[in-house]
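input
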Amino acid sequence: MRAVLAIAVLLSTLSSCEDSLSSFGPGLHLQLRLPEGQLQRGVLRIDSGGPAVSQVLRPQAEVVRGDSSVILRGRLAPGGVALHVQAMGDSDHWVLPAKGFDFVVDDELQFSAKLEFSHAISVDQLVVKLQASDKEGRLGPVRETSFVMAEVVPPSRLLVSLAWDAPVDLDLYLRDSQGIIVGSKNINSYEPPGGQLPPPDAWMQGGFLDYDSNQHCELDLRNRENILWLAADPPPGHYEVYAHLFSPCGQAAVNMIGTAHLGDSLLGIGGATQYEFDSRNHPASGEVPGLLLLEFDVP
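output
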C-alpha cells in the first residue's frame, strides 16, 4: 500500500514539473535515453535539501554504443519518490518513478532504469548523473556513475553477451539448439565432418567465445564475454544461456545481465545476483555449469 501511495504522489509531482517535455520528442538528441522515463527540459538542478540516491547497482562498467539493454538499479533515501537522470553533456534529462519499497531497507524505495546509449556518443567514458526528489519536488545531492564505451563488437548474425559489475571470474556458457555447449571449455560450436580436414576458416561457421574475462582471477576488468555467429546463420531452435561463477576472487557478490540479439532484434534478457558461496557448487562432467539466465528461440 505504501508503494502504491508513493507512486500516486509521484505521478502528481511529475504532472506539475515545469517545462514537461511529453510532446518534445523521444530524446533522440541525447546521448542517453530512458524509454520508461519522462523527458524534462534542462539539466539537473542544485541540491535543495531533498533525499539522496542511497544505492546504485549496475551490471557492468563497460557498454557498447547503441546498447539498449543496460538496467541500472538502486534505492532512494527515505522520502525519495523519483529518480532524475542526465548524461554529462546532455542538454535535457529524464525523470523516472520509483518502483516499490526495498525488502531489506524498508523505508527506501527502489528504482530500476532501462538505459539506451546513443550510437553517436563521441566520448570514451560517459558520466551519468543521478538525483532523487521527494513528493514536494525537492532535489537531493547529485551522485555520479560512469560507463566506459567499449570497442564495437563485429556485426554478427547472433550475439549472446554476459556482463557483470564486480572483479570476479564469471563465465558465459551457451547450449545451442543442437545441444552443443559453447564456453571456456569448448570455445566453438563448429564440429568438422568425420574423416575430413576442414578448411582454415571453417571455425567461422560456428558460434564462438570471444574472450575469457578475469580468468583464474587474473583481472582484466573487462567483465564481459560474448558468444557470436559471424559468418553463418545460427541453427534454428531453442537456446539456453548460463552464467557460472567460477571464482568470486575475494568478492562477496556480483550482479550480472545476459542478452541475446539476432541481428538488431533483442531475443531475450535476464539478470541475477550471485554470492561467494555460489562458486562452491561445480557441475558434474558434461553438465552445463552455472545459473540459467535466459532462454530464447532462433527462427
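quick obs: The longest strand covers residues 237-247.
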